[in-house]
Amino acid sequence: MPDWKDKVRCSFCHKKSSDVSKVIAGPGVHICDECINLCNEILEGERLAASTEPRLPMWESMSEEQILDHLPKIAAVQAQVDDNLRDWVAHLRTRDVSWERIGASLGMTRQSAWERFRSET
């Protein structure tokens, strides 16, 4: 089984945790110190600019090719979040938490939760 450090990637730049100094975990997502630094630079730049111009969604400033190139990164983050959610559900099952409670927590039926998260082993 791979080490968790091999699985953890930044949800923003998709770098492996071994390729950066620090990765901070959130609920199903991770952010590396390099992306945090970039975020801080962006926020500081916006504070300095103090622009009142309306902000467009990110894709409005991107070409179709740039958007298409970005889609695999979004899909990779989704896969990472799905894997993380599966791990959390598996842990709840080791505590004998019912499929009904898990489903209710996720806004789905017991049957839907069981079908999505049951162990194939």
From TrEMBL:
Highest taxon of source: Bacteria
Signal peptide interval: none
Domain ClpX-type ZB: 1-51
Pfam families assigned: zf-C4_ClpX
Record key words, sorted: Chaperone, Metal-binding, Zinc
Cited Gene3D superfamilies: ClpX chaperone, C4-type zinc finger domain (6.20.220.10)
Record's protein name: ClpX C4-type zinc finger protein
Provenance organism: Nonomuraea antimicrobica
